[in-house]
Amino acid sequence: MTQFVDVPNMARWIQREGVEGIMRNMVKYLENDFTRWEKFDKIPRVASHTPFGVIELMPTSDGEEYSFKYVNGHPFNPARGYQTVTAFGVLADVDNGYPTFLAEMTLLTALRTAATSAMVGKRLARPDSERMGMIGSGSQAEFQALAFRAAMGIEDLDVYDVDPAAMDKLKRNLEPLGFRVTAMSSSDEAVANADIITTCTADKAQNTVLSDKQVKPGVHINAVGGDCPGKTELEAAILYRSTVFVEFPEQTRIEGEIQQVEEDFPVVEFWKVLTDQAPGRTSEEEITIFDSVGFAIADFSALRCLRDSTNGTELQTYIDLVAEPEDPKDLFSLVNSLKPVG
Amino acid sequence: MTQFVDVPNMARWIQREGVEGIMRNMVKYLENDFTRWEKFDKIPRVASHTPFGVIELMPTSDGEEYSFKYVNGHPFNPARGYQTVTAFGVLADVDNGYPTFLAEMTLLTALRTAATSAMVGKRLARPDSERMGMIGSGSQAEFQALAFRAAMGIEDLDVYDVDPAAMDKLKRNLEPLGFRVTAMSSSDEAVANADIITTCTADKAQNTVLSDKQVKPGVHINAVGGDCPGKTELEAAILYRSTVFVEFPEQTRIEGEIQQVEEDFPVVEFWKVLTDQAPGRTSEEEITIFDSVGFAIADFSALRCLRDSTNGTELQTYIDLVAEPEDPKDLFSLVNSLKPVG
């Protein structure tokens, strides 16, 4: 039987552990796997694009376990009452190929995206960072805020969203948790005093939600929303003033902010920073960008973190997904109560 | 909520409808989708190979629905009590990207592989075919036999397998259903009087389970087991005497019998036979080969056939796989019963 964590149990897990507790634990899983980067099978995600959005499969394996995530991105969904992004994922045993664990990943993706941003931000933002400017306050915003508080103690948020109701929602969700959230009337105001700028908007277009003149020296830009072909958030000029850190260059050049620039634009693979093969931030004035697109290895980490944390608890149920006849060559035995016709 | 057909309900469905009844219905779905071949997104499956076997993802879409299948192939599994092939699959709504239907596909893949062979065999084998030679009597064998009886009335089977117990199993499963099954002591004997030869063995190697001198004019070869890189069953010389029909050439050249021959070896895409854009069998003496590897569109057809046939019955349950907050921009609302810390 395959272990299963459905939506209600995922919500219960988050309530039990707390987002910040999960963040601290998940960052350890991420760091462990990013450190083993070279051991993993890595391919750009497999995308099926339509005018409505995209459906993607994101597989990877470390040679012992295999994972994949199904995820969609449909920017017009919220206007129709649906989530922009929904996801689910699977772990499998490489040794025999059997799926071992299935989980909802809409919430888990929100957690892993934020945890990845925090893992990177902790190493690239100035250590004295206190204030985050956030452009976009949709589904991912609370998770980013909690991740950066868990990793760096950030509690001051200056927020701008084109939808005032989305800013109200962010205040409503975060202020009771001790954040100081200021809703701004422009992105200029949201980033004016920021040590860290998080861009996380949903529109599938080459937008400039952050322009070059808004970016001051020393800032760390956590660029989350530019994550598929034709979807970017930063004015290209910013990239030329900055050091750009990526997950998997082959995928980021297709999907990230760097899709706007030449193919050989220099980037730093973040796993090399983790393993001391590349420097992170080198000066107070340097502008660092995490060009986050979300890579399969982070889903692998998140699924294993969830599985290990819920093992043996009532948060896991079981589903019968794998046919197991007594004689493995006799699959037909499962159905051979058919009536004879002879 | 996502509709779900698990293993026990899949077995119940097959018992309720009968394999042959399902075959007749599923062939209609396959013919409908193969006829619309040009409308589909088509990519070779995405494979993760290890020394133990392979794990694959097989996505496709007709622009309205999307499907993918997870499937493994682990030839050493039966010796350890596991299935060689297990699978599950998903249908999703392209319009909003939500997964709508999840099903076990170990049994369903056995059905769709056999149904595809039958759809093709019905058009390529001589119409007067009466006797099938089968090399390999593993998990897929009963399904192939029932598919060819449903499509062409074949009831005489001459079988050879290196494992005598597997032949006993086939006789035990099929004779009560009215088949005349003869277990042979060599592949020579199994194919000597065959109008149709089905090869379906599991060993992941470049084998010759069928050699050139065994193949007489006029036969149709249903070559099922050669379906991944390094796994073939036919002596290459057979290919040069035959007309080879394939599902999706880009995938078959990597995975099928034709991986043994030059890259521009001529093949006929079967969907063109269905749509009268290419001839099928052109003479009594022609040797036809269906170089079956299994393509995503057949899984799409099989999933839709199963879904439609079980809709509104107790064979479907529901699983909570997609987070649906009341406000789609407020994913955090699902977890915000967190205790305040302020």
Please explain how this structure is put together.
2 copies of one chain form a homodimer. The first copy, chain A, is α/β, with parallel strands linked by helices and 342 residues long. Chain A has 2 domains: 2-107 and 297-331, 2-Layer Sandwich (ornithine cyclodeaminase, domain 1), CATH 3.30.1780; 128-295, Rossmann fold. Chain A contains 10 helices and 17 strands. In chain A, the strands form 3 sheets. An 8-stranded parallel β-sheet of chain A has the order 9-8-7-10-12-16-14-15. Chain A has a 7-stranded mixed β-sheet with strand order 2-3-4-5-6-1-17. A two-stranded parallel ribbon of chain A has the order 11-13. In chain A, α4 (141-152) links the parallel β7 and β8. In chain A, α2 crosses α3 (106-124), α2 (19-35) packs across α4 (141-152) and α2 crosses α10 (296-310). Chain A starts with a strand and ends in a 23-residue tail after the last strand. The interface between A and B is large, with 89 and 89 residues. Chains A, B: InterPro entries: NAD(P)-bd_dom_sf (IPR036291), ODC_Mu_crystall (IPR003462), ODC_N (IPR023401). Chains A, B: It comes from Kocuria atrinae.
